[in-house]
Design a protein that fits this description.
alpha+beta; 9 strands; globular
Length: 189
């Protein structure tokens, strides 16, 4: 059922609207999709709880949050459980978009994913992280990705998600992600 809901939404959003009343149907459809995915899985944490959890997690992973630029815009953040994040990342179409060097690359993927989660599912617990990656061949470079705020037994925790790859890994700092380790220096939540 969920799969047919998602494909129905994609078809309508791709400009196949036949008349203005379809907009109302899309709104109802999106609400049904939100309810189907998010029922009983959402927690809300205030900004102080989220910031404390983020700073503690960075320290536990060997990082120094005082050396990073961390920007938080909201007073409260919504956080699904991990299994809900896994469902959401499977149906999100950001990972299917085409990479275009300098015009639609890692930062664009990260901001697009953040926006999709907010606009469609009303989840603002997605951060855009940027910093460096260090790969197994010794290369170091700049990169951008997402951090997911997860409801872990009623407590906030962060997981790394790179929307270009589509894999969720627990952690924020020095996360081993496929063939690279990720080290953020800026986090926008």
């Amino acid at each position: 059922m969920l799969r047919s809901l998602v494909f129905g939404l994609a078809k309508r959003l791709l400009g196949l609207l036949e008349d203005p009343k379809d907009l109302y149907e899309i709104e109802i459809f999106v609400r049904e999709l939100q309810n189907a995915i998010l029922s009983d899985t959402m927690a809300s944490f205030n900004a102080d709880e989220v910031k404390k959890a983020l700073f503690n997690q960075i320290r536990e992973e060997g990082g120094d949050p005082s050396s990073m630029r961390i920007v938080m815009y909201d007073g409260k953040y919504r956080a699904p459980k991990l299994d809900t994040w896994e469902k959401l990342t499977k149906i999100d179409f950001t990972k299917w978009l085409s990479y275009v060097k300098e015009y639609f690359d890692c930062d664009d993927f990260a901001f697009t994913f953040k926006c999709h989660m907010s606009e469609v599912f009303l989840i603002n617990g997605v951060a855009v992280a940027s910093g460096e990656y260090r790969d197994i061949m010794g290369h170091v470079g700049g990169h951008a990705w997402n951090l997911l705020l997860v409801n872990e037994g009623g407590k906030p925790a962060f997981y790394t998600y790179d929307p270009q790859i589509g894999r969720i890994v627990r952690g924020v700092y020095g996360v081993k992600y496929t063939t690279s380790d990720y080290y953020p220096n800026t986090i926008i939540l």
